[in-house]
Amino acid sequence: MKKVYAYPKSLKRAPFHYCPGCGHSIVHRLVCEVIDEMNLQDKTIGIPPPGCSVFAYNYFDVDMAESAHGRGAAVATGAKRAFPDAIVFTYQGDGDLAAIGTAETIHAANRGEQITTIFVNNAVYGMTGGQMAPTTLVGQKTTTTPYGRDESLDGAPIKMSEILALVKGTVYIERVAVNSPDNIRKAKKAIRKAFQTQIYKLGFSMVEILSPCPTNWKMSPIESWQWVDREMTKVFPLGVIKDTTEKKDAD
Question: Most C-beta atoms within 10 A of its C-beta, which of 54, 132, 169, 172?
Fold first, then answer.
């Protein structure tokens, strides 16, 4: 009989604290499946700054190191330089990576640090009460924009993947989603490629993942999954943003 399901070895058997319908639990499993399939459990270091994933060390059965808010890329840089043979990844939300951590992320990417960033974008500050984030859509209601984000006051949503694609040190950047089985399969493929990019020492890689946040969006899980397709992908289109891995391999 062919085995079609197995609990990932690198995922601890602990109940998730995430809200029903949240994408974090799916992303956690995808990362762990990739770690297992690539036989990386004993050499992986995860860096989760504060955010909804602040308790990620309760779930990932790999070496984990907390960083200060927004400093994931800085701590990951230090870990990778101290342990160059390790696979180092940050696990960051949009409020973390695209706000307080913008400088660390951009400069680590520009230096071409050999790290991988898993960037979970749910267009809102999830852990602290649903405030407007840098990625909040124009017109989207949050606790700090009860009438909807106003572009004339708050600016437009920041597209970090497109920004990072402009710097020389980035090699692979892709935007995916986890709101449907097909998108989940594509997300796993992107995470695997990002880790491979690091293994081959090609440069900085990032996978941006559009993730539902039913609680702060004030929607049911099904409505939030549909909202990702209907609204989020208009502003944050899915697909490969940058991929120079083949050119790097040739060099």
Answer: 172
Q: DSSP states of 67-111 as a string?
A: --TT-HHHHHHHHHHHSTTSEEEEEEEHHIIIIITHHHHHHHHHT
CB of 178 within 8 A of CB of 209?
A: yes
pLDDT digits (tens, 9 = 90+) for 48-97: 998 888 889 999 999 999 999 999 999 999 999 999 999 999 999 998 99
**CA angle (183, 188, 189) in 5-degree steps:** 95
Distance CA 103, CA 76 (A): 14
CB 141 within 8 A of CB 147: yes
**CB neighbours of residue 143 within 10 Å:** 13
Contact 211, 202 (CB under 8 A): no
pLDDT of residue 71: 95
- Domains of the chain and any CATH numbers: 24-250 (3.40.50.970)
Please check whether residue 56 is in contact with residue 28, taking contact to mean a CB–CB distance below 8 angstroms: yes
Beta strands, E only, the chain: 44-47, 63-64, 87-93, 116-121, 170-177, 204-210, 239-243
Paired tokens of 179: 């709101």
